Amino acid sequence: MRRKHFKNAAAKLYSSFDAAEWEDITSRTLRMSTDEGSRLGYVDFLDYRKNKNNFKGPQLPMTLLLSGNGSMGTPYQLDFLTDPLAKSLVYLDKNTLKTKLPPFFQNLNTLLDKLNFYKFNRQTMKDLNDIVEWIDLGNRTLFYPLDVKMQLYIFENSY
Questions:
Q1: Are 33 and 79 in the same domain?
Q2: What's the pTM?
Q3: Distances from the Cα of 118 to the Cαs of 56, 67, 82, 153, in angstroms?
Q4: Do 93 and 26 share a structural domain?
């Protein structure tokens, strides 16, 4: 059933674009894919006209949804090593962020590893406070000088 819904959504998305925009298919393409269980869909707009020499980096403002690779024991973890959008954050300021962004995300993952909503209420609030303080420190030292703000959204699934 999920696969059927995905195919229907993909057909509607493909049909919504004007064919004249996609005449030069050698340099631009649109690709839709899904995970094995058709639970998560991906839409990729690829423009092969851009390369390392003419890519100016991400244009602001934008919202990045970093993928997570958490498990049952540590459900909140950012996959910043393989996520292409997380890697592209370095292009905001290569000199500063190339060395400082990976340790920032590693420390954030360490704090997120401790977070568990099945602990005592006071301990959970302390863990959340540590995460918020770390993000605030990152905003003040890394992101605000670049006119960027980092926000963290945590979604807890009830089942």
A1: no
A2: 0.57
A3: 44, 23, 29, 18
A4: no
Q: Is the dihedral of CA 34, 32, 49, 90 positive or negative?
A: negative
Contact in structure between 128 and 134 (CB atoms under 8 Å)? no
Q: How many Å apart are CA 150 and CA 139, to the nearest integer? A: 6
Same domain, residue pair 62 and 35: no
Could you identify the residue written with the tokens 């500063």? 96
> What pLDDT, in 10s, does the model give residues 4-15?
888 888 888 878
Confidence of residue 129 (pLDDT cuts 50, 70, 90): very high
Helix (H, G, I), strand (E, B) or coil at 42: strand
- Last residue of a domain, which of 13, 36, 55? 55
Q: Give the position of tokens 């990729």.
A: 44
Residue 65 has pLDDT above 70, yes or no: no
Q: How many domains does the chain have?
A: 2
Structure tokens at 2: 């999920």
d(C-alpha 120, C-alpha 80), whole Å: 29
Residue 49 shares a structural domain with residue 120: no
Contact (CB, 8 A) for 2 and 37: yes
